[in-house]
Specification:
Layout lengths: L1 H12 L21 H25 L4 H11 L6 H4 L7 H23 L11 H14 L5 H20 L5 H8 L41 E6 L26 H4 L19 H14 L4 E4 L13 H19 L4 E3 L24 H11 L8 H7 L2 E6 L2 E5 L20 H17 L2 E5 L11 H13 L4 E6 L5 E7 L6 E8 L11 E7 L6 E8 L2 H5 L9 E5 H4 L6 H13 L1 H11 L4 H6 L3 H12 L7 H20 L4 H4 L21 H17 L1
Parallel strand pairs: 1-2, 2-3, 5-6, 6-7, 7-9
Antiparallel strand pairs: 1-10, 4-5, 8-9, 10-11, 11-12
Helix pairs in contact: 1-2, 2-3, 2-5, 3-24, 5-8, 6-7, 10-11, 11-12, 12-13, 14-15, 18-19, 18-22, 21-22
């Protein structure tokens, strides 16, 4: 106890609290105040809170220490960001709060559930467990009563089962949940496995650089990602609510004001109205050529506290039927997003009780997808939501359920090893494709370099990509809502091996224009040779609610960047981004779909570095290429600023810069003095309150 105070005092008086140059995903929280010290401070507060809460559960007595501690924590965090931003993208005060809350609440649940004399040990203690969870929500000011109750009601049965049937403790649980910051205190051997990778095939040495150039005769593939249809979207309703998603209620007070939701969607925390989705499909049918359709997950909206089997299945089927109606005989190849299940994000392993199993979702999706997929895909879809199909001789598609890597999927904490089978199947399917002389497209919702993708899963996935780089001819992802790309590198030599193309999102959530992509694919090698991104400007569309939005071609990749879309060519492009800040700014603008709030706010040097680093990281624990590019970019920006007095306006954000809460995992942006001071104030106020 005294030791923690001494450590903090030493850190303060020694001037240790300065920003580290270490790069972590999203907003960095890594200080020269050693991670172990910061973690120890958080742990001390978490342990105190856990002990006070257990005492409160036993006695019903609120001690002065309990009240002071919970009051201070309730004031220490933002209300909305901890629900709308991914863990790696939280600002320092929120990251510190979530670490404390995670460790404390997990300890209370583990001790009271697993101890024979614990208050929640009884199998019939669900009512008391909910009361505890709601009390935490109220005392720590987590969200509105409605949001907390909805999330607790849907998640509690699964969380209780995991707590009763796993050996995970608070340190390992929260280390995985917040893997890429100070809250990660170490590894659990059950969560550090390796796949068996075949080494008998011939893997060509060096970078992969053999992509044909674009031809008008190439196959065309259209990608619709992250549709997030909101069946309750109401034009004119309140777009600035306290909940994680808005644009559904309070039309009577919001309509006619600046807080009102637009007809064709809204830049704020709102999802997609049905007529906007139909407009996207109508434009694709009229102006794009689609030989295949890739739908890379997340059809259900962000109303995360009010999911249900009935609502989710209704939306999934409605979107599936509309895609089928729009494109007729054109085959659609979908994969699962993290928003599809109820409860949100939770994908159970096999063998758990039916009432908390995800098999209902897999059964429903197979029924929806069976209009496009052959019967032999049924077995793996029902097993885990993944499949493979051969649309043409010599061409195979593998659709993965990448929620196995998602650290918001609580079933990850039930067991680290039950995520091996799908990846092993992925490897074995690639091996079969190699033997058959097939080229493969890989569809997956969550990019492996995302800040919420478990690094061990990502590492083993990358090993498969490197081993089968000659077989994998295209990778297509979603989830980030960004129009972007990711370059894969071999772990040993650092050679570029593959490129993953991220299709952005049809939804406007958040601060983006609706978009979809059209790809050109060589008919012999099935490599991507070009792509086009279609958008409409949300501001302009909402000025004319009675007219269809004006969809337009935002950009064509080979005309704006490079004709060499091989992994080696795109890796070279990343170097060009680092050497040419104006080219990097162009990439950033397209990455955020030229959305007015983003463009008006601008992108400073750290924002540019995050965007560039995100393109170079596919395993968050391996960041060498990111560091190299970041250093080169900063040198270019320094040179630009020294030679052009007008350049600072282009690299400095305006006063209302929107947060780039984009799962970056990107380059380190230096943490400002205000952020350091805020975090210090939180720590000191909580310590002094005790």
């Amino acid at each position: 106890m005294k030791a923690i105070g001494i450590l903090l005092a030493i850190a303060l008086t020694s001037g240790f609290l300065v920003v580290s140059a270490v790069n972590l995903p999203g907003v960095p929280v890594d200080f020269n105040l050693d991670d172990h010290i910061l973690s120890a401070i958080a742990d001390d507060i978490a342990e105190r809170l856990a002990r006070e809460y257990i005492n409160f559960l036993k006695t019903g007595v609120e001690t002065p220490e309990f009240l002071k501690l919970t009051n201070q924590l309730a004031k220490s965090h933002s209300e909305k960001d901890i629900f709308t931003r991914n863990m790696p993208d939280l600002e320092p005060r929120d990251s510190f709060f979530v670490c404390v809350a995670c460790r404390s609440v997990t300890r209370v649940l583990i001790r009271t559930i697993r101890d024979e004399d614990g208050e929640l040990h009884d199998e019939n203690s669900s009512v008391l467990m909910k009361e505890f969870a709601m009390d935490v929500c109220r005392r720590l000011n987590l969200q509105t009563e409605e949001v907390c109750e909805g999330l607790i009601d849907s998640n509690l049965p699964s969380v209780e089962y995991i707590m009763r049937n796993s050996e995970s403790d608070s340190q390992s649980f929260c280390s995985l949940f917040m893997e890429f910051n100070f809250c990660n205190t170490g590894s659990n051997q059950d969560y550090n496995w390796t796949l068996t990778i075949d080494n008998t095939g011939e893997v060509s040495p060096g970078p992969k650089s053999d992509t044909p150039t674009f031809q008008d005769s190439d196959i065309r593939i259209c990608q619709f990602s992250d549709i997030h249809h909101d069946p309750y979207y109401t034009p004119g309703s309140l777009a600035t609510c306290a909940e994680p998603m808005c644009c559904q209620r309070n039309k009577e007070t919001a309509e006619g004001t600046s807080d009102a939701a637009g007809y064709w969607g809204d830049y704020r925390d709102c999802d997609l109205p049905w007529h906007a989705f139909e407009s996207a499909l109508d434009n694709a049918v009229a102006n794009s050529k689609c030989d295949f359709i890739y739908q890379t997950g997340d059809i259900v909206d962000h109303m995360v506290w009010a999911t249900s089997v009935e609502k989710n299945t209704m939306v999934l089927t409605k979107v599936s039927e509309r895609l089928n109606a729009a494109f007729g005989d054109v085959p659609v190849y979908p994969c699962i997003g993290n928003h599809e299940p109820h409860p949100l994000n939770l994908f159970s392993p096999e063998g758990v009780p039916d009432e908390i199993s995800t098999k209902w979702l897999y059964e429903h999706l197979y029924n929806d997808w069976s209009k496009w997929l052959p019967a032999e895909t049924k077995e793996t879809i029902l097993k885990g939501g993944y499949y493979t199909v051969v649309p043409r001789k010599g061409f195979r598609i593998i659709a993965l359920n990448s929620n196995d890597c998602y650290t918001d999927n609580f079933w990850l904490y039930h067991s680290g090893t039950d995520k091996i089978p799908q990846l092993q199947w992925f490897h074995d399917t690639l091996l079969e494709a190699e033997k058959n002389g097939e080229y493969v497209h890989v569809l997956t919702h969550i990019p492996s370099g995302d800040g919420t993708c478990w690094s061990v899963w990502a590492r083993e996935f990358n090993r498969c990509v490197t081993r089968f780089k000659s077989t994998i001819s295209g990778m297509f992802t979603g989830h980030s809502h960004k129009d972007e790309l990711f370059v894969y590198y071999s772990e040993d030599e650092g050679h570029p091996t593959a490129v993953a193309w991220n299709g952005g999102a049809v939804t406007t959530y958040s601060n983006k224009n609706p978009n979809y992509r059209e790809y050109a694919v060589n008919p012999e090698t099935y490599t991507v040779t070009n792509h086009w991104t279609w958008i409409y400007n949300l501001t302009a569309a909402n000025l004319k609610p009675d007219e269809q939005p004006e969809w337009f071609l935002e950009y064509e990749f080979i005309k704006e960047f490079t004709e060499d879309l091989s992994p080696a060519g795109i890796s070279k492009l990343l170097d060009e981004f680092a050497e040419n800040p104006e080219l990097m700014r162009k990439y950033w603008r397209y990455r955020v779909t030229s959305a007015d709030p983003q463009v008006n706010g601008g992108c400073d040097r750290n924002c540019l570095a995050r965007s560039l680093c995100r393109a170079a990281v596919t395993i968050n624990s391996q960041r060498g290429r990111c560091e190299e590019l970041r250093e080169k970019l900063f040198a270019s920006l320094d040179n630009e600023e020294s030679t052009s007095s007008g350049s600072t306006e282009a690299t400095t954000p305006g006063p209302s810069t929107p947060s780039d809460d984009d799962n970056d995992g990107g380059g380190s942006s230096t943490l400002g003095l205000l952020s350091v001071s805020s975090l210090l104030a939180i720590v000191l106020s909580i310590r002094l309150a005790l």
